[in-house]
């Protein structure tokens, strides 16, 4: 996963909480913020669901098109 540097203006209490969590968990601050953002946007759930997928890309597309065709025929 590509990471890019950015600047955010955050409430001082949030920054303090990130620093404390970082120190307690032995992780970098960006990891704490990234984890919180992923949870907020539901990315972890999507990644978990996607990891259970056993279909190849072509099979998944075929299935999606079959369902699309079935819905259009209604």
Number of helices: 4
Average pLDDT reading: 91
Domain module tally: 1
SS-based class? mainly alpha
Q: Topology as H/E string?
A: HHHH
Largest sheet: none
- From the spread of the alpha carbons, the general shape counts as elongated
Global Rg: 20 Å
How far is the first residue's CA from the last residue's CA? 41 Å
Which stretches are poorly predicted, pLDDT < 50 over at least 5 residues?
A: none
Protein name: CopG family transcriptional regulator
What can you see in these coordinates?
The protein has 74 residues and is an all-alpha fold. It has one domain (12-72). 70% of the residues lie in helices and 0% in strands. It has four helices and no strands. It starts with 11 loop residues before the first helix and ends with a helix.
